[in-house]
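pls design
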């Protein structure tokens, strides 16, 4: 049993490294793109300092459309 585990350890470490890299890229993209986009969307909302209904509606539609992609 332990021989089988030892035989796959190099591949397992490679797969774990690749998974961590994909997670890091996705998390970085979410923070760098999603954070400011969310703040902008909030500020464009009704009653906020940058209130702009047309811009809010377009940006909100884009965010909601892109947010649904993982479920398609």
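designed seq:
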């Amino acid at each position: 049993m332990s021989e089988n585990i030892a035989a796959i350890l190099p591949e397992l470490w490679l797969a774990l490294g690749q998974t961590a890299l994909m997670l890091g890229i996705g998390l970085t993209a979410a923070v760098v793109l999603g954070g400011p986009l969310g703040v902008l969307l909030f500020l464009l909302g009704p009653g906020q300092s940058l209130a702009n209904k047309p811009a809010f509606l377009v940006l909100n539609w884009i965010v909601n459309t892109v947010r649904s992609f993982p479920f398609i």
